[in-house]
Design goal:
3-stranded antiparallel β-sheet; 20 helices
């Protein structure tokens, strides 16, 4: 195959070769054009007269899953646009992958753009339609093994109804992957990550977790993963006693295929299981004193203390035991992974795991895991609640403006804490905000009084995201020389943020 990056290749010759390669790709894709058309999730609809009475098919096809219920309208209300988008992007996806294999420049970018769009379109359909789609594209070999594996991993992670009969069928299809395809997907993710700068803390952490998974797979030795759940007081975590041999090393209660490299995620799912019903609906909670003050001045310790009380109450009410279970797995038995969230998820069947040990975590342990998980989700200044107030470092006050703009004030956390401690203690004791306290006005005054000027260029301060360096300053990880400057406010108008988003999203 000709190396299109060969410097000896002149521009005219290079363009000629690329045209010839694309002609070749067009011929290959034309051979399966009927199969591509038939792969549409709405194929059942197009086989009807498409009259009003036939629209019940669209109602049945659209997703009603919790996370993507709003996307279902696209199928029901705009089927023609949906189909147009699907056929356009499925063709781009197939062609760009073939172009990528041939070494055509920019093919990879086109592939991932199309992939993102196809993934969105697949979230619009229900579980049954997803099952039909996977089976069809697999049987007709529309995609390479690597690309199909990537799409299946996405569908598993993006599905909420996996505990139903159809959900279990979808799960089996999504985790039916060979190790080599998984390894290829992982390598591609690493290659893509290497080309992109960290967008925010969440993005940085996900990149690090992807590297860690690659490292573990390269070593090839068994490694540990975690799973968090709750059991009834009379339920056993292990399948058998130690005297019963192999059964002792197998899980009995709340088995599943999702595990995590991060123990904090297991703790988070303990919390999630306590606070949600079987349908995944939040049970709600009582208002606490921390709800009465701005989130950006609540310390991590204060949040852990309050969540600890809440978790303890839930455990007593529900008569259940939270469990953080530690498993040993063989990397060659992995069926999937998903590093595109903050869960560092590893998919493996329960029979391929060994229960190394488990603990009944304290309520404080669970609450700490929850807080650490929230830090992993930090992306924008809107998420400042996930860092919490740092009285020994830099405090941050984000001020949302009516025009969509944002003001950021960085201040001395110790000084701010001394100013607000009395008000905090009063609310904590009484449960009510003292009369006359207007948080926004008071906080803006205090933050301006003790504000810092930060090295903007060095830290890449912007209103769209919180990067690694910025996070390290806020959490006092590095001893950065900060200059006190009263009244210093970093200001962006709504139009400025809009312009930044256009650049950032490219």
């Amino acid at each position: 195959m000709i190396d299109l990056n060969d410097p000896k290749l002149n521009r005219k010759k290079k363009q000629k070769i690329i045209r010839e390669l694309y002609d070749e790709i067009e011929r290959e894709v034309s051979e399966i054009k009927d199969e591509i058309k038939e792969s549409s999730p709405l194929s059942l609809w197009w086989k009807t007269p498409q009259k009003q009475e036939d629209r019940i098919i669209l109602e049945q096809l659209r997703t009603k899953e919790t996370r993507y219920a709003d996307e279902g309208w696209y199928v029901k209300n705009k089927p023609y646009q949906y189909e147009q988008d699907y056929q356009e992007y499925i063709n781009i996806l197939i062609k760009s992958e073939k172009a990528e294999i041939r070494g055509i420049p920019n093919a990879s970018d086109k592939k991932f753009d199309a992939l993102n769009r196809i993934e969105f379109l697949l979230t619009c359909i229900n579980v049954e339609a997803k099952i039909r789609w996977i089976r069809y594209v697999r049987e007709e070999k529309i995609f390479s093994d690597e690309l199909l594996t990537r799409l299946k991993l996405f569908l598993y992670s993006a599905s909420d109804d996996l505990n139903t009969t159809q959900g279990r069928i979808l799960t089996e299809l999504c985790i039916d992957n060979n190790y080599q395809s998984l390894s290829d997907v992982l390598d591609e993710e690493l290659e893509k990550n290497a080309k992109t700068e960290d967008k925010n803390i969440r993005h940085h952490i996900m990149k690090c977790e992807t590297k860690e998974l690659r490292r573990l797979l390269d070593i090839g030795d068994p490694f540990y993963v975690y799973r968090g759940f709750v059991v009834k007081e009379d339920e056993y975590v292990r399948l058998g006693k130690k005297s019963e041999g192999d059964a002792y090393w197998k899980q009995n209660a709340r088995v599943g295929i999702s595990y995590s490299l991060d123990r904090n995620i297991a703790g988070y799912f303990c919390f999630w299981s306590l606070t949600h019903n079987e349908d995944g609906v939040d049970k709600g909670r009582k208002i606490r004193w921390t709800d009465k003050i701005p989130n950006y001045i609540i310390s991590k310790e204060e949040m852990i203390e309050e969540w600890e009380k809440y978790v303890s109450d839930l455990r007593d009410e529900q008569k259940v035991k939270p469990i953080i279970c530690k498993f040993l797995i063989d990397p060659s038995k992995i069926k999937g992974f998903h590093m595109g969230t903050t869960e560092a998820e590893i998919m493996i069947t329960p029979e391929d795991t060994i229960v190394d040990s488990y603990v009944i975590p304290t309520s404080k342990d669970i609450s700490t895991c929850l807080c650490n998980w929230r830090v992993k989700n930090l992306q924008k200044w809107d998420d400042i609640t996930s860092i919490y107030f740092n009285e020994n470092g830099v405090a941050v006050m984000p001020i949302q403006k009516q025009d969509g703009g944002l003001h950021l004030i960085f201040a001395d956390g110790k000084e701010i804490n001394e100013k607000i401690k009395t008000i905090k203690d009063s609310i904590k004791e009484s449960g009510d905000t003292p009369q006359g306290v207007r948080w926004d006005a008071i906080m803006e005054e205090y933050f301006k009084e003790y504000s810092y000027e930060l090295p903007r260029d060095e830290l890449n301060i912007n209103p769209l995201s919180i990067g690694k360096e910025m996070f390290n300053v806020i959490t006092n990880k590095h001893n950065v020389n900060l200059k006190r400057r009263r009244g210093k406010v970093y200001t962006w108008t709504g139009s400025a943020i809009k312009s930044l988003k256009q650049i950032f999203d490219k």
